[in-house]
Amino acid sequence: MIQRSASKVWGKRLLIGALAATGALYATADYLFRLTLEPRWKHSMLHGESDGAQLPGLNPSHTLSLDTQEEAEAADWFEDAKRGVSLNAADGTRLHGWMLDPDCANPQRHLYAICCHGYSGEPAEMAKYAHRFARLGFRVLTPASRAHELSGGHYIGMGWLERHDLMRWIDSILSEDPEARILLFGISMGASTIMMTVGDRHLPENVVAAVCDCGFHDVWHQFIHSGNFLYHLPVALIQPVLEVMSLISRHRAGYDFHEASCGPSLRQASIPMLFIHGDADKFVDPACLDENFRDCASPFKRKLLIPEANHTMSASTDPKRYWNAVTTFVRQTFDLK
Fold this sequence. Notes:
Blueprint: H1 2-37, H2 68-81, E1 83-88, E2 94-100, E3 111-116, H3 127-135, E4 139-143, H4 162-176, E5 181-187, H5 189-195, E6 207-213, H6 219-231, H7 235-252, H8 263-266, E7 273-278, H9 287-295, E8 301-306, H10 314-317, H11 319-334
Parallel strand pairs: 3-4, 3-5, 5-6, 6-7, 7-8
Antiparallel strand pairs: 1-2, 2-4
Helix pairs in contact: 1-7, 2-3, 6-7
């Protein structure tokens, strides 16, 4: 009788312990989901008034920049030249962006570039890239990703939701100019958004080429890498939390982390693609460069690894090499003189 009573006590304790552990796991996953993917939550690390720490690697101010003057000039040009554009996403979310006209004496007809910013960023961070393309004769669109800057939306889609938004922006250009020839350019999450889009069977033939700078390969492994890099957590601890985060994301945001991958799209890609990464990138593993390049089925593809470049800093670390590769690729694929 005593043994049976003791077994019941231990059984209750184990049950209570299991429930407490499950509750703690869910609470942790819920907090991290809101922290990283719900920018307008007051405690979000992306919130303007957040008391959270800045993300290392996303603001690498310690990295040597060799294009400071160009960035300043491009920022002034961006502010002076931009004009607002907007549209509704497929789910009704109101999306906003900035359109910029060519900045050269003899602009090419029907040339457009769409420049996609990264996680936690905004269109203005694309100014120097946009200006380079504007000087080549392109009209440039810099959309704000959902839940960023002036665009609506509650959650960040890590490229998976944004790929549908990018298709909408492409369609909006074609509605104004059916003869448009479009370049896709993105950094970080913007690059991954493009990689998740290029294999879409509905991608118009007007999309001529894409340049992807420091994009991650898939959301699951990117979050594992980020958890290890930012918080020094072992993979065995990260994975169960990430599984619950993924379930929360599917319920609230409409996607899970396992499906959000560039791989399937890249394996259907046929347009010319240029992949770029910095070998000192701590935020997105430089190994993603080879993984993305390997998955890409395009018959015309190139890759460039910039030594000593941190995350999103390849153009600043070695401007000459970076822009020589990008400009050569763009001129070749668009047949520009």
